[in-house]
Every structure is written in C-alpha cells, then in structure tokens.
Request: fold
Amino acid sequence: MGFKDLVTTLDDVFGKHDKGKSLKHKKLKRLEKALEKKQANYRERLESGSSTEKPFQTELRLHVVEAQLEKLRELLK
Reply:
C-alpha cells in the first residue's frame, strides 16, 4: 500500500471511530503491520542515504507514519 493510500485509509478509520462506529480488530492489526513496514522502510532510507526523494520528505513521511501508528495503537487498547 502506498503512502497516500495508507494515510487516506487511516483517516477514514479514525473518522469512523470518531463517529462512534465499531472497528474490526483484524483490519486495525493489518493497518498496524503496514505502518510498521513503512516506518522501517523510511528509517532504512534515511540511514542509507539512498533515496529517490529528498531526506526531508522521507523524514516528514516517517513522522506522519509514527504519529498514525501511535494513534492506531491507542485504538487497539
């Protein structure tokens, strides 16, 4: 799942939660795994220095992914 698709999907999930709708644990766990994969990917890009995007773009994406991962984990509790 691409970064934009992942962010959009998570925004939809958080919106449903804010409206009081129940969320499927299985879907949340799948999203958590996708976020963890993206987080590892972005950290690797920053450490290796080889990327098709600029380092600040990668850092920004990493911060977004980490914030969403934290919020998702709060929902899983």
